[in-house]
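Hi C.,

You asked whether I'd gotten around to modeling the 147-residue construct. I have! Everything is below, sequence then structure, no commentary in between.
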Amino acid sequence: MERETVDTGLVVVIVLLGLLVLGSLALLPKLWRSQADIQRAEATRAWPFSEAFRAGFLRSIPAAVLALLMLELGLIAGFFAQYLTGDGSRLADRLTVYFGTAFVVMLLVDLSVTLFNRPKFIVPPDARSEPGAVRLWWSSRKRRRAR
């Protein structure tokens, strides 16, 4: 019987991403209440883009954390799909596809929160009334033209 070797590169990625996801999930309550250190203006002083996109980025961090979680779960399912046989392998393959799809959907939700501040249920409660980055950018552009 042949012995398969473990894909160490994938294991390293899963472990490192897992640590990032666990740390992010631990911070998620603070992020949701907008009390995390990164959400203060001083923490993002060197932000290379406009203030509108900084605000949108900060609002979308909880969605990004969920996207990372979906990616991690998909990688774990894909890892097990390589080594299981029969029904276990088919289930792991399906889970890989489902989590991969959920990851792409969460990235689109993240982009939507950044640009338009929608859908509201995934935006931290105190930021739900703020306009999206596109509207902030457009209004700042109008102000500059009026000068």
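If it helps when you're writing up: Residues 87-116 form the longest helix (30 residues).

Thanks,
B.
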